[in-house]
Write a structure and sequence with these properties.
With 779 residues, this protein is mostly beta strands. Among the domains are: 118 residues, YVTN repeat-like/Quinoprotein amine dehydrogenase (Methylamine Dehydrogenase, Chain H), CATH 2.130.10; 84 residues, Macroglobulin (MG2) domain (Immunoglobulin-like, Sandwich). Helix content is 3%, strand content 44%. The chain has a six-stranded mixed β-sheet. The protein has a four-stranded antiparallel β-sheet with strand order 1-57-56-55, with no helix packed on it. Strands 2-3-4-5 form a four-stranded antiparallel β-sheet, covered by helices on one side. Strand 3 and strand 4 form a beta hairpin. The chain is elongated, with a radius of gyration of 30 Å.
């Protein structure tokens, strides 16, 4: 296993070299479900993958390293290798190439959940405790031998296993305070004809106490012992013999302390304050009886000097004198990500449930987390469970680095430098026009589930919820607030997109929802208005008469994108995909989506070639390619953890056409999919771009050595339409006709004939902008 250790240290030092069509995973390795020692460190099973941690190095193994799934419940070493077991039962083993290979996925297809830490490997067999059954797995054949839901008189489908241990040829299992024993032939378990028989188990009466919890089973001094606590495991010497710290286990629940080589560690960072409650007088509300400090450490690896100590949420290094908190996984410290926004100049910003920002501009490093809604220099607020509960999409980004964000019930924040420095915090108050959803005078409870950049990049648009109809809100970069109150067709607004039409007016497209639930009825509001600067910065003149409403979606839209090549808006609801264009009178559902069935959608984005990228809550992600002439037919490509996603649970999707990357948000991290066909030229035709859009030669003289008209510095997702003086379309350039930010036209129509001389109008449309100009053709 020395080769394995060397490979781990190499992993911690190398820098990835990028190639086309490559997956990258970034994960937050907490909580820790189990830790096993190796060398001077731990392999830890975490909700973000497998972390190998020593006092001086840190490495992560995720699906891009072949793990099979993001969240790992158990790890174990044996003579046959190092094994990992995911939450839903994907069995994997580490190879000599410093990556994992999946041995079996059959459990995952049965919607099973592993009890954290409940895997044991003995001989050529593996024992797995699920929440409602016990399974025996053959390592040589990579298949399940048998799965049982009863052992002796215990019904595992009603009462799960609470502790499990192997000693020699015996398997001990605790259920509801009773310990059961069965003899096993670990090297020939497949031949055990009675393995399925519940009567082949015996009850260990001398260590059982029905109804009392057993969390730990150990073999000590020739006898089996049980404890009501999970205990603290300590490993020492090169043989890595595991022993139980009896001192810890026999202490009372409220006074457990950490003992390392006879020294009691009293440092406060090793403990957290907790309390014991008692009933109030006369059946009143329970009150605190007393406080105590609970041990944060569960696994200890003794080193030549000091120790490495780990718990579910913390990792410490003790050098024999002082204790250092080494918990943070520096490559990705932002935590549980639920929302992503592509940075217009390349990269992505991630927002976590706990209220932190972090961004990645080069596929390699994430910035240290910053508070997304700061209260003071050290603390802030996050959307927590509201983020996923309401499928919030409240972060918006401008090309100049400004970032906009909302915290449920509180207000909005504006940042510069891609979220690194706060410039404004706008709280709901009686001094501004932000809605109070609860309509209580004591506190203005402002809620929103959406935001979008203003189409001229002058600020941001959002919508605050109100029982009188949602309000459209414009917030400038300096934090000035203006509202068009209660103009919405429903109380709550969903996803938003804002564009500038050919008349120079703003058109704001708002998904609607009738109630808070994501299964609520919904539709689409289209609001047409003058730009705020033409109204003195005050949008209060916008009224219900400026709103048109469309219906037809099975439930409320959760996310929305605009595809400029076809002019379609695409939306996802919880269980459907819908589309709409300016010519449609209702929201429509595609007729043919072979390969896209029974998905629970969460998010959608579009790349520069018109492909739709859709995230789901349990089935990974899809790339959908609509036919340019018929949006009712889409080709489908499916991506899961098998292909390289960190997890099949995708909360958000962001397409970065500058780096050529599709980003995916998961429970405990982010995936990045680098594809050569995703890259575009979105930086062109930007207000913040250093390159100006140009058309030349103009006039175009085809009979005087002018062979092509060039449209230069054009976004690759743009559509260039050329009209004659009568308004008839003579040529459209898009898709493959736009390469590297450049399109060319030889002045001929589709029939190959040169157009007549005269003045022509060109219109260039992108996701948010429309650019017009005149072209003179002389011959």
């Amino acid at each position: 296993m020395k080769k394995l250790l060397n490979l781990i240290f190499i992993l911690a030092l190398i820098t990835s070299t990028f190639a086309a069509d490559q997956w990258f995973n970034y994960s937050y390795p907490f909580p820790v479900r189990e830790a096993v020692p190796y060398g001077d460190g731990f392999f830890m099973a975490t909700a973000g993958g497998i972390r190998f941690k020593t006092a001086t190095s840190d490495a992560m193994y995720m699906t891009s390293k072949g793990l099979g799934d993001q969240s790992v419940s158990a790890v174990a070493f044996s003579d046959l290798g190092f094994f990992a077991l995911s939450d839903n039962g994907v069995v994997a083993r580490m190879s000599e190439r410093d990556s994992f290979e999946v041995l079996n996925r059959s459990y995952a297809g049965n919607n099973l959940r592993v009890i954290p830490g409940m895997m044991r490997v003995a001989g050529t067999a593996m024992v797995i405790a699920f929440e409602d059954r016990l399974s025996f797995f053959s390592i040589p054949s990579n298949r399940s031998i048998v799965t049982v839901d009863r052992i002796s008189d215990a019904n595992l489908s009603k009462t799960p296993v609470s502790a499990m241990e192997v000693h020699g040829d015996s398997l001990f299992v605790a259920v509801d305070g009773v310990v059961y024993l069965r003899k096993m032939d670990w090297y020939n378990l497949e031949a055990d004809a009675h393995l399925y028989d519940p009567d082949s188990w015996k009850v260990m009466k001398n260590v059982s106490s029905a109804g009392k919890e057993i969390k730990t089973i150990v073999w000590k001094d020739g006898k089996i012992r049980t404890y009501p606590l999970e205990g603290m495991w300590i490993w020492e010497d090169e043989k890595e013999t595991r022993v139980v710290n009896d001192t810890f286990l026999t202490f009372a629940d409220t006074s457990s302390m950490i003992l390392v080589r006879g020294k009691l560690l009293k440092d406060s960072i090793l403990y957290e304050k907790d309390s014991v409650m008692r009933s109030g007088k006369g059946g009143a509300v329970p009150v605190v009886d007393h406080y105590y400090y609970k041990n944060r450490v569960q696994w200890v690896k003794l080193l030549s000097k000091g120790a490495l100590l780990a718990g579910p949420e913390k990792v410490f290094h003790y050098d024999g004198k002082k204790i250092e908190d080494v918990t943070t996984y520096k490559p990705f410290a932002v935590g549980n990500v639920y929302e992503l926004q592509a940075i217009p100049k390349g990269g992505v910003i991630a927002a976590s449930e706990a209220g932190y920002f972090s961004h990645n501009r080069d596929l390699q490093s994430w910035t240290p987390p910053t508070l997304a809604f700061p209260i003071d220099e050290k603390s802030g607020l996050g959307n927590m469970t509201n983020a996923r509960g309401h499928d919030m999409k409240v972060m918006s980004v401008l090309p100049d680095g400004h970032v906009f964000y909302h915290v449920w019930g509180m207000g909005f924040s504006i940042f510069a430098n891609w979220g690194d420095s706060a410039t404004a915090v706008i709280m709901g108050s009686t001094d501004n026009c932000l809605d109070d959803y609860t309509e209580k005078d004591a506190f203005v409870y402002t809620i929103a589930v959406t935001s979008t950049p203003a189409p001229d990049n002058s600020g941001f648009l959002t919508a605050t919820a109100s029982n009188k109809g949602y309000s459209l809100v414009y917030i400038s970069l300096d934090g000035e607030v203006s509202c068009a109150n209660n103009i919405g067709s429903t109380s709550i607004a969903g996803p938003m997109i804002a564009r500038i039409n050919e008349d120079g007016k703003w058109v704001v497209y708002v998904g609607t929802r009738s109630t808070m639930g994501t299964e609520a009825n919904g539709g689409l509001d289209v609001i047409t208005m003058l730009p705020p600067k033409k109204m003195g910065g005050d949008i209060s003149k916008v009224a219900k008469k400026d709103v048109k409403s469309y219906y037809g979606a099975p439930s409320t839209p959760l996310d929305m994108v605009y595809e400029p090549k076809t002019g379609y808006f695409w939306m996802v609801t919880a269980a459907s995909l819908v589309y709409w264009s300016e010519q449609d009178t209702s929201l429509l559902t595609p007729l043919s989506t072979n390969g896209l069935t029974s998905a629970n959608f969460t998010s959608i984005d579009v790349d520069s070639r018109g492909n739709l990228w859709v995230g789901t809550s349990m089935q990974g992600a899809y790339r959908l390619t609509p036919r340019t002439t018929n949006p009712d037919t889409l080709s489908v490509q499916h991506f899961t953890a098998r292909q390289g996603l960190l997890s099949d649970r995708v909360q958000d999707v962001a397409v970065d056409s500058v780096l050529g990357v599709v980003w995916f948000a998961h429970d405990n991290g982010v995936s990045a999919y680098l594809r050569k066909d995703v890259g575009g030229t979105d930086g062109n035709m930007d207000d913040d771009s250093n390159k100006d859009f140009k058309v030349y030669p103009n006039p175009f003289r085809p009979r005087e050595n002018h062979s092509r008209i060039v449209f230069d510095n054009v976004a690759e997702d743009a559509v260039i339409s050329i009209f004659n003086r009568g308004g008839k379309l003579v040529m459209a350039l898009s898709g493959d006709r736009l390469v590297g930010g450049r399109a060319e036209w030889d002045g001929t129509m589709n029939n190959g004939k040169l157009v007549a001389p005269g003045v022509y109008q060109y219109v260039v449309r992108t996701k948010s902008k429309v650019k017009k100009g005149k072209l003179l053709i002389v011959h």
